[in-house]
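Entry:
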Amino acid sequence: MPQTTGTTDAEVVAIRSAAPPHRHRWWVLAVIGVAQLMVVLDATIVNIALPSAQRDLGFSDGDRQWIVTAYALAFGSLLLLGGRIADLFGRKMTFLVGLVGFAGASAVGGAAQNFEMLVGARAVQGLFGALLAPAALSLLTTTFTDAKERAKAFGVYGAIAGAGGAVGLLLGGLLTEYLDWRWTLYVNLAFAAVAFAGGALLLTRTTRDKDARIDVPGAILVGGGLFCLVYGFSNAESHDWTSPATWGLLVVGAVLLAAFTWWQTRARNPLLPLRVLLDRNRGASFLSVLIIGAGMFGVFLFLTYYLQQSLGYSPVETGLAFLPMIAGLMLASTLATTVLVPRIGPKPVVPLGMGISAAALVWFTNLDLTSAYATDILPPLVIGGLGFGLIMAPAMALATDGVRAEDAGVASAAVNTMQQIGGSLGTALLNTLATSAVTSYLDGRDPKDPMVLAQAGLEGYSTAYWWSAAFFVAGLVISAVLYRRGAPVHDPDAAPAVHM
């Protein structure tokens, strides 16, 4: 159970309400927005550059997923810990340290001379991103003390988070095509410099929470468990599913996560209080976010390779090709959160999104070397974006709906953790299945024949799309069973929770 202090929740609210508004609060929002954009776009900006980086550094198809997974895994598994560190050492200091570390790791990644150096830099990026994101969220909460102004600030913050993926795809394409893939990492130095200068000048130093304690055993258990699961799925490509290096790691990962769950019921300051997960709507939302993370990351990775390697698209053309999906996602997200869920609830909306997403992934399996963008690629892209939006916005909103005030921060961190971990696990598993399908297709065929290689690539992509569709079908069943009927009832006094 969390430690109690001599200050009641009512007194904390009164103190915050009485605090005068920050003189430069809108400039603070701009600083936090720049930092948030840097963290969010880094999840997609490297995807567009990945084929170029692979050619330059010479790593294998089996290894390419680690460029994406190293960042997402470190970021997702350490977010909860990052929030506690911000409480313990002060938000401003944690924010500035996160910026410096993120920029340094980006510089190392941009200068990478081999695969190992690039993966290591991406993992360190994720580590410092996990410090930066919760600190930015906390600073936003404490800077805007007026309820109406805070709602506006959260709206801007959420819009930045939503648009970051699209910005990353476009910027990644432009930098890769007109400069070099390394600039998709170097560009973070500019973002970090602006945010650091603004943060150092404008942010108020906060007193650290002397009662905050870091749940070190919990952090070790959840980080170790997640790493073993991702690495186990990745190993299946090179060691086969029957190898102890594959199933052994998967078993160890499952045991460590089970131990983490048990430990959270015993720890005095748990990383993730289990009461956050036990509500039916919240539990369904966490699982839905995990599934959308796995499915979406898979689409971005494999469709990027298909467009550039199979159809010969340039990096900029690839980034532009994804924009209709992002537009569909944003349209459906707005419709779901403002019209559908408030009127009819999540039970029909999220399962519908799962079904639409599964249909789009099945459509992608028909793509071949002669597919045209307007007739064969654009329709499933738009449909997939609509499906993703119907899942993502309601699930992320309901994952934090109705939590206690003291749990709002950890709930926001946890839902983003689920999205990142879903992406890590999905990317690792799908990449393993895709490369295995390529190997099977090449067996008995001439691997030097360009047409054979091109067709083998299509087999790999198709396999990934089929499995992604299976994820969404499972999500349809889970969300249809778990979500409650009817529109959710909101507590008007609940503290807002924002998603990173």
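The two ends are 26 Å apart (CA to CA).
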